[in-house]
């Protein structure tokens, strides 16, 4: 009996011979170097993971997807897959033109035949796709502050897949997975989507789901881009491999999905279902608040706990995959086993550890009980997340010129060096300008480049267990957020707003800069002719009016102690 979920699906790759020929011809084409997110999207376009898409969306398809989750031909598709580019690049491109798409090393991956070029309404896209134009949503922030302002659309000619040097044996295209299921004679397959390490509750949940659906189990974690601050995929895959031994080998397999998540909640659940259908799966576990990004600017969850399950159910027939709803599993002490939360016997003690509590225990080096997670998983997590007092971190001072940032930063550096234990590096705004950014001016674009360079160096120091102290003006919220995300991938980011009023800064004006700015002799001067966007929620705010430097530096030390970054 032929099963449609196991038959091969179309890919966008040309033959090896054609690819060799196109590589040579592409030398003459204009090239676009893809961003990490675009590489993830392109890989799933080319290997059929995004079937029925034949390339990056045209304007008509984009409009349909944004407005009502449908392509122009009526097919269900909830997520805009667009090639965003800079204005400068777009100016040189016209519909009817071919462009070479290359990875960050310049290796050609595909050719895009441009059919459409347009400037999207990003506020509308945010509202319709993510439910709100709110920068607290990581994908909305990406849309406004990272993605290019112009979209290009058109079909793709796939030349070769992106190279992955890690976990090669665990990476499968949709057709490779379908062939594997055919070979093993698996008819029904339930997929489990995850971007977090697996603990005992997840194992119980997946066991039950497979049993309920009378299906085999595919653990299908995302290793592309997830939410900023998530555990890195190298650590997660080592954790998954440790847990895989706990499953019966003949009924369970694991494959890695190189997907760039958007954290779009209900729409994302439908999207994940369509992607899994392309991978030959028949059932899919949809969780509570599936792919939710957490809280919005008002401190309320972006999506309701069951919104994703409800939307998936609505489109289940079209997706072609049966939903298995995620049961919240809790540990029942008296029974020494896991139960769905709504099936706990009366009078029993329920034990549960939230993600926040787990991170706290890791941060403080506290015990993580065996009923909660497997010792092998805890060992892996501790290797990557040692207690905070042993991790690198960054203290990022921001404030107006003359507010006292550099002076406090120097005092803090001396105090931390006196304590010892970790190397301390000061990245002062003026010093960085001299050595790292001497060619940059003071336009918004150049200021952003300068701050991102500081952030990059600080993230490398943090990653390697050191302490970075940064003291630039850093006037723009979006740039500070980008730096925070860069650093929080490796350790803590402590933003200190030196909130000295501008009147006091002008009084101090040692370098005479404010006077020159008032006279119009310095253009784009922060606080005078250029805005300073004060941080809304810094880890610490200090005001240096009538307060000595030692006291301010001591406040920072107390904050670092309270956060567990240095020992009291």
Automatic annotation (TrEMBL):
This protein's name: Adenylyl-sulfate kinase
Matching PANTHER family: SULFATE ADENYLYLTRANSFERASE
Entry GO terms, CC: cytoplasm
Functional pathway: Sulfur metabolism; hydrogen sulfide biosynthesis; sulfite from sulfate: step 2/3
Gene Ontology biological process terms in this record: hydrogen sulfide biosynthetic process; sulfate assimilation via adenylyl sulfate reduction; sulfate assimilation, phosphoadenylyl sulfate reduction by phosphoadenylyl-sulfate reductase (thioredoxin)
Annotated Sulphate adenylyltransferase catalytic domain residues: 171-383
Reaction equation(s) it catalyzes: sulfate + ATP + H(+) = adenosine 5'-phosphosulfate + diphosphate; adenosine 5'-phosphosulfate + ATP = 3'-phosphoadenylyl sulfate + ADP + H(+)
Source lineage: Bacteria, Pseudomonadati, Pseudomonadota, Alphaproteobacteria, Rhodobacterales
Gene: cysC
Binding site for ATP: 399-406
EC number(s) from the headed UniProt entry: 2.7.1.25
Keyword Ribonucleoprotein listed: no
Keyword NAD on entry: no
Organism: Rhodobacter xanthinilyticus
Family from the record: Belongs to the APS kinase family.
Residue ranges occupied by any APS kinase domain in the UniProt entry: 391-543
């Amino acid at each position: 009996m032929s099963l449609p979920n196991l038959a091969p699906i179309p890919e966008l790759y040309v033959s090896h011979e054609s690819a060799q020929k196109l590589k040579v011809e592409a030398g003459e084409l204009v090239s676009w170097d893809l961003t990490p997110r675009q590489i993830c999207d392109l890989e799933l376009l080319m290997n059929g993971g995004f079937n029925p898409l034949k390339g990056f969306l045209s304007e008509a398809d984009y409009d349909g997807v944004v407005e009502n989750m449908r392509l122009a031909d009526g097919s269900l598709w909830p997520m805009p897959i667009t090639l965003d580019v800079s204005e400068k690049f777009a100016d040189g491109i016209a519909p009817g033109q071919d462009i070479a798409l290359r990875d960050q090393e310049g290796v050609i991956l595909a050719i895009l035949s441009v059919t459409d070029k347009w400037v999207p309404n990003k506020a509308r896209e945010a509202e319709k796709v993510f439910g709100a134009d709110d920068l607290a949503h990581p994908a909305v922030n990406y849309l406004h502050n990272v993605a290019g302002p112009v979209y290009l659309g058109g079909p793709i000619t796939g030349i070769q897949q992106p190279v992955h040097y890690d976990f090669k044996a665990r990476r499968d295209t949709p057709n490779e997975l379908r062939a594997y299921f055919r070979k093993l004679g698996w008819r029904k397959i339930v997929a489990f989507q995850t971007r977090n390490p697996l603990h005992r509750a997840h194992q119980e949940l997946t066991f039950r789901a497979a049993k309920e659906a009378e299906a085999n189990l595919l653990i299908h974690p995302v290793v592309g881009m997830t939410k900023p601050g998530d555990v890195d995929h190298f650590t997660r895959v080592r954790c998954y491999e440790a847990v895989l031994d706990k499953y019966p080998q003949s009924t369970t397999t694991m494959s890695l999905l190189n997907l760039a998540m958007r954290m779009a909640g209900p729409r994302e659940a439908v999207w994940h279902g369509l992607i899994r259908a392309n991978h030959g799966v028949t059932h899919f576990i949809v969780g509570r608040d599936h792919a939710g990004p957490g809280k919005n600017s008002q401190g309320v969850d972006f999506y309701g706990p069951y919104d994703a399950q409800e939307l998936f159910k609505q489109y289940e027939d079209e997706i072609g995959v049966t939903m298995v709803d995620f049961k919240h599993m809790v540990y029942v002490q008296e029974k020494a086993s896991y139960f769905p939360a709504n099936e706990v016997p009366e009078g029993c003690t329920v034990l549960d550890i939230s993600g926040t509590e787990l991170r706290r225990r890791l941060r403080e080096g506290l015990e993580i009980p065996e009923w909660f997670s497997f010792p092998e998983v805890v060992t892996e997590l501790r290797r990557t997340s040692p207690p905070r007092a042993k991790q690198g971190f960054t203290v990022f001072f921001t404030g107006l010129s003359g507010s006292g940032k550099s002076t406090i930063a120097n005092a803090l550096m001396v105090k931390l060096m006196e304590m010892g234990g970790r190397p301390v590096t000061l990245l002062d705004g003026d010093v960085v300008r001299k050595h790292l950014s001497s060619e940059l001016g003071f336009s918004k674009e150049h200021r952003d480049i300068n701050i991102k360079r500081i952030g990059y160096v600080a993230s490398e120091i943090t990653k390697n267990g050191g302490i970075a102290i940064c003291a630039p003006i850093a006037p723009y919220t979006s740039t500070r957020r980008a730096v925070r995300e860069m650093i929080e991938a490796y350790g803590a980011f402590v933003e200190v707003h030196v909130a000295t009023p501008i009147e006091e800064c002008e009084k101090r004006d040692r370098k005479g800069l404010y006077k020159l700015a008032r006279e119009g002799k310095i253009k784009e001067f922060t606080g005078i002719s250029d805005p300073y966007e004060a941080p809304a929620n810094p880890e610490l705010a200090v005001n240096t009016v009538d307060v000595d430097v030692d006291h301010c530096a001591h406040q920072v030390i107390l904050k670092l102690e309270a956060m567990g970054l240095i020992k009291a």
